[in-house]
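Sanity check

After download, print the first record. It should look like this:
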Amino acid sequence: MSSPAAVTAAISSFVEPLIGTDLASAEVPIEVDASGKHAKLRFGFHLGNYRATLLAAIQLHLSSVLPGVSVELHIESLVSAQAVQKNLQPLAGVKNILAVASGKGGVGKSTTAVNLALALQVDGARVGILDADVYGPSQPLMLGSVERPTSPDGKRMRPIMAHGLQAMSIGFLMESDAQPAIWRGPMATQALWQLLTETMWDDLDYLVVDLPPGTGDIQLSLSQKIPVAGSVIVTTPQDIALLDARKGLEMFRKVGIPVLGVIENMSMHICSNCGHEEAVFGSGGGDKLSREAGTELLGSLPLDIRIRQQADSGTPTVAAEPDGALARRYREIARLTAARLAYGSAAKLSFPSIATVDD
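Expected C-alpha cells:
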C-alpha cells in the first residue's frame, strides 16, 4: 500500500504524449482517495478511443514508479473556455471558437474544417460549424443539407443539425446554390456577424469557423469582434501555398489569436488502383513552415479521391467511414488540436515527437 501523496506524485510525473509534458506541469487535476487505491484524472479535451491507450500507459508508468502498488484509475474530460482577444467576451452557448483558415483557395480548407469538426465530435465533444465564406459557402453541400433555419422568436435562428453537428451558413438562407452573394466588404462582415450571433448555439465545446481564404475583411472582422480561442492553418506542400499560409499565420498572431498549428493537406497522392504514394505537390513544406514560424505540424492528409467524393456527396470522410484510415488521421489531428487549445502550444514545451495510437 502507498500513501495518497505518493500515488499523486507518481501519476503527476507521467509525461502525456499529446500534451507533451508531465501531468504536474500541465496542471491536470488528480484526485486520490484516502486509501491510495483509487485515482481520478480530469483532462481538458475529449479522448475518444485514445482513453484506453492512455489508461494503459499511466498504469504502466505507475507500476514502474511504485512497484506492487495497485491503483484503479478513472479519467474524465471537461472542456473549459480558453482565453480570447482582449476586450472581447465569450459567445453565448459556445466555450471555444476555433478558426480554420488558409492563405489561398484550393487547398481543401473547407473539407478539412468539416472533418475536423466531425472528428472532435466523435471523440465526445459538442461541436458546431459556421461557414464564414459568405461569398462561396460550401458547407451545406458537404453536410448534405438543404434545410432552411427556423426561428422561434423572429430574431434568432436554430442551427441546422447535420451528422450531429450544429451548423450555420449563408447557403442555408439562399434560394439556390447558384444564387450569388454580391456584397461589398462591410455587408459581408455584417452577414457573418449576424450568422454568428443570431444563431442559437446550444452548449458547444467548440465552434469550428470555416473562414474564406486570404487575409481580407472577413478575417479582420473575425479578429476584431469575434472571441476566437485558437486558429489552425491549412496548406498544401506547394511553395506558393506555403507563402500565403505564412501570411495567414502571421495575421492571427498580430491580432492576438493563438495559432495552434498547421495541417498539411494533399501531402501525398495515393493511387486508387495500386495504392502507390507520390508527393505530387512536393514534400515537407508544412513541417518547414511550422518550424520556421515557431508552431507545429498538427498532421498531414493525403490527396485521396475518397475525401473529395465523400464531401461532395454530403457525407464527409469521418462520417462516411468512421473506422477507416482516413478518418483516423482526421481524429488524430483533431485530438492534438484540442490538446493544444487546452494546454498550449508545443513550441512552449520541451518534448520528443508525438505519436498517437488508436486501439
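If your output differs, re-run the checksum step. Summary of this record's structure: The two ends are 31 Å apart (CA to CA).
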